[in-house]
Design goal:
This protein has 2 domains: 204 residues, no CATH class; 76 residues, no CATH class. The protein is built from 10 helices and 11 strands. The longest helix is centred in the N-terminal third of the chain and has 29 residues.
């Protein structure tokens, strides 16, 4: 098998492996995607959101530019925040503040003691990461306190994407205009979509200890931290990339089709571009008139060569008094600007092609 056919075989194998891995990963993502609930209800039976609300909210978000204005699950523009992470944090803080007021009479969560904060944070972590989705009915069940927190965060987003003066500074920081979503009902529906993305980021996948988004985003309040598999696959991907680049650099054929010389010079006395090098072409054309080759005396100072090269002197047959010197066309002309001490008049400089322009 020729070298070219080997390269094509390696390329084909790499493409098959890469696309096969991508198809397998895509299938796994599709099979384990966060479920879209038919409805979200409280333990008291009140309907918070329906599937139609969430899907309509996604369409509203896409209609204003989608990922060009903020991001979802880390994908999108970074002028505005990631709405999944922003909603999740605001909902967590709203829940903690509500529990702090109801149980300890505090103004907010930060006013509690360390022991009280630890108590509420443990409850928050358990409640938020618990998966209450019923696959048979397609229903997500929430407590009334969490429903109240959702209503509070939804009101914030309805004002942010509207023209509420209380959120004017945020709109300026996020490069948003007033009434980004003009219809109040559409703002409420878009909030439903934001809530569902935050729910997937905080809820554990059944049978695992990680969320639907692989513990993204980082949220210390509920213990969202990158799992060990994230670091493992990241290190594997970088190592595989570097190994591929190294393999390409290791197997680089020379311009003449043979193996590359370790010293960087051609093993022959001619240059590697001899077919396009006029002096070397002339040397080949008169090869029949070349007499015996005598190696230069290494002691003589007028016959020097670069390291790794042995100079040769070619003598023509009888009747020819001039010597044909390999690569003599690369030596500085006698008396030229580079011939400061008249070196070219007295000795031959042997240089391989490629060292001088």
């Amino acid at each position: 098998m020729t070298s070219t056919r080997k390269l094509w075989s390696v390329l084909a194998a790499s493409l098959i492996f890469s696309f096969g891995t991508s198809l397998w990963a895509g299938g796994e993502i599709y099979q384990n995607a966060p479920p879209m609930p038919e409805q979200v209800v409280t333990t008291e039976g009140a309907v918070v959101y329906t599937r139609a609300d969430i899907e309509r909210g996604r369409q509203v978000w896409q209609s204003i530019g989608g990922m060009q204005l903020g991001s979802i699950w880390g994908h999108g523009g970074y002028v505005a925040p990631d709405w999944s992470a922003d909603w999740l944090h605001r909902e967590l803080v709203a829940l903690l503040d509500r529990w702090a007021a109801d149980e300890f009479g505090a103004a907010d969560f930060t006013a509690l003691s360390g022991e009280q904060q630890s108590l509420l944070e443990g409850r928050l972590r358990e409640r938020m990461r618990q998966n209450t989705y019923d696959p048979e009915t397609g229903t997500i069940t929430l407590g009334p306190d969490r429903a109240a927190a959702i209503a509070s965060v939804s009101a914030h987003y309805e004002g942010l994407f509207g023209s509420d003066p209380a959120t004017a500074d945020l709109r300026e920081n996020y490069a948003m205009k007033n009434d980004t979503v003009a219809d109040p009902e559409n703002r409420r529906l878009m909030s439903a979509f934001f809530w569902w993305t935050a729910w997937a980021a905080a809820t554990e996948r059944p049978g695992t200890g990680i969320t639907y988004t692989n513990n993204w985003p980082s949220e210390p309040l509920i213990g969202n931290r990158p799992p060990a598999s994230t670091f493992l696959w990241s290190a594997f991907s970088v190592t595989f990339l570097l190994a591929g680049i190294g393999a390409l650099g290791w197997h680089t054929p020379s311009p003449t089709g043979g193996a590359r010389s370790r010293t960087g010079f051609q093993s022959s006395t001619r240059c590697g571009m001899s077919r396009r090098c006029p002096p070397c072409s002339r040397q080949r054309s008169i090869s029949g008139a070349v007499g015996p080759i005598h190696r230069a005396d290494p002691v003589r100072s007028d016959d020097r060569a670069l390291p790794g090269r042995r100079p040769v002197r070619v003598r023509l047959r009888a009747g020819a008094g001039a010597a044909l010197l390999d690569h003599a066309h690369l030596a500085h002309p006698a008396g030229g600007p580079a011939d400061r001490r008249g070196v070219a008049r007295h000795r031959t400089l042997h240089r391989p092609c490629g060292l001088w322009p």
